[in-house]
Every structure is written in structure tokens, then in C-alpha cells.
Amino acid sequence: MDHWIVALYAAGIGAAGSLAYASALYFGFVFAEDIMKRLWPSSNNSERTGESILRLLWFILIGGAVAFIFQLPESVLAPIQAFIIGTTWPTVVSQVLTGRQSGTSIPNQIDELIVRR
Questions:
Q1: What residue ranges do the domains of the chain occupy?
Q2: How far apart are CA 93 and CA 100, in angstroms?
Q3: Nearest 5°: phi and psi at 31?
Q4: How far apart are CA 84 and CA 80, in angstroms?
């Protein structure tokens, strides 16, 4: 039961990391024009604005979900790890998927990620 509570805290921290990254993109502190166009396409149409807000919420929720998944096996909260995973989840997910296509098993990928910490 404690693992779930800790993982929920990690999800909140991961979501905050995703929000921080999206904010840095929005305010121009991080230059990634392609990501910004996908996350928040420019348009004066109110429907597009609503769609952009949904995209942003989806981005934040996925960041929290990825941090939740990474925290589940741990019994002690790793807030910095959760924040970084929430911030960098697109890269983490793409690396996992690329490794999967190359034939590396998921347990080996997890072992590699743990060793990198």
C-alpha cells in the first residue's frame, strides 16, 4: 500500500516537471520550436485554443503517469527522479520504444536505466 502512495506523490511531482517544461517552452526559456508547435499551435480560433489546452493537459498527465510507473518498484520517494522523468518523459519513452525495436528486453532496459542513476 505504501508503494502506491509514494508513486502517487511521484506522479504529482512528475506532472509538475511536465508543467515546468511546458512553461519553459511557452516563455521561451527553452528553444524547441517543433515541440512548441505540436503542444501549442498558434491560432486565433477558440476551438484551437481549447485543443491546445487539452494537449497541454495530456502532456502533463503523461509526465505524471511515467513518473508514477518509474516510482512503483521503489519504496522510498525519489522526488528529483520523478521531476526529471516528468520533464523528459518524451525522451525516456522514445528510448524505451527504440530499445524495444532493437530487440533489447524490457527487464534489460530497466536494469540499464537503474544503473545510469
A1: 2-116
A2: 11
A3: -100, 105
A4: 6
> pLDDT for 15-55, tens place per residue?
999 999 888 888 877 776 666 666 666 655 556 677 778 88
Tell me the pLDDT tens digit for each residue of 62-93. Answer: 999 999 999 988 889 999 999 999 998 888 88
Cα gap 92→54, rounded to integer Å: 22
Tell me which DSSP letter residue 43 carries.
-
Half-sphere exposure in the Cβ direction for 58 (13 Å, CA): 10
Torsion of CA 96, 100, 102, 108, to 10 degrees: 80
The C-alpha atoms of residue 74 and residue 71 are separated, in whole angstroms, by: 5
Sign, CA torsion 66/70/76/82 = negative
Cβ burial, residue 70 (10 Å; 0-12/13-18/19+): buried
C-beta neighbour count of 71 within 10 angstroms: 26
pTM of the complete model: 0.71
